[in-house]
Amino acid sequence: MIKMNKINKSYVVNEDEPLYVLKDIDLNIEEKEFTAIMGPSGSGKSTLINIISFLDRDFEGEYYFSDQDVKEFKDNELSAMRNQNVGFVFQSFNLIETDTIYENVELPLLYRGATHRSAKPEVLSQLEKVGLLSKKDQLPSQLSGGQKQRVAIARALANKPKFLVADEPTGALDSKTSDEIMTLFKDLNAQHGVTILMVTHDPEAARYCKRVIEVKDGQVIG
Ligand code: ADP
Ligand code: MG
User: Fold this and answer.
1) Beta strand segments in the chain, E
2) pLDDT in tens, 108-138
3) pLDDT, tens digit, for every residue of 71-101?
4) H or E segment at 190?
5) Are the beta carbons of 127 and 102 closer than 8 angstroms?
6) Order of all β-strands in the sheet with 60-65
7) Which of 12, 38, 47, 91 to mutate to test the pocket of ligand 1 (most atoms within 8 A of CB)?
8) Ligand nearest 219 Cα, by number?
């Protein structure tokens, strides 16, 4: 599904000395994989994941997604690729605090043109998958951190993306809650075939993944 060849990326921080953040990254990810990208802070993990999830096309090298050349996409095509293919989960959950749990999960479906009525079965099914059906009428502020992250996962899955991208999804959680979220990811992958690509610097979280890619100083080292 994801095929990257010799991806290089640099940021220009001062004119004479660009900062090389990704160096000759080769990466293949197939459907139904459950992969962790691991590495110390500043090693280029988020930069890499932003390219993979069509947020950043300003790189050198080749990126083919399902045999389509990502470099060839126009801006509007790139954002369409993102909307159709990627579900995002963040460290900070990014829920809408004034909306109920139900409404948070419903939102991406409405955004894609669904009606309240047509969205309902999907919203309920995603909430059930993450074990939060009983919380559907509550507000995010009434939930624990782990529960909030479950809502974010349900929301990310609502549009049936090709893959889930999670940047430090357990970064704001204690270790017990982190284990619960990783168990949920593991079940979603094993039982529902969800392709998951996560970034973490926590080896305990990475243990749940089927594959671990180690990044250091912008290079894949293992
Ligand atoms: P990680 O996610 O592994 O912590 P990042 O991909 O966020 O690493 O960052 C890699 C390097 O690129 C760091 O040195 C960071 O300071 C730098 N960097 C990230 N984003 C930018 C940016 N927009 N402009 C300049 N430098 C950046
Ligand atoms: Mg990062």
Assistant:
1) 2-14, 17-29, 34-38, 60-65, 68-69, 86-90, 163-167, 196-200, 211-216, 219-220
2) 999 999 999 999 999 999 999 999 999 999 9
3) 999 999 999 999 999 999 999 999 999 999 9
4) helix 175-192
5) yes
6) 17-29, 2-14, 60-65, 68-69
7) 47
8) 1
Q: Is 200 in the pocket of ligand 1 (CB under 6 A)?
A: no
Beta-carbon count within 10 A of 204 CB = 12
The token pair at 175 is: 């270790």
Ligand nearest to the CA of 168: 2
Pocket test for ligand 1, best of 9, 10, 11 (most atoms within 8 A of CB): 11
CA distance 105 to 98: 13
CB atoms within 10 A of CB 139: 16
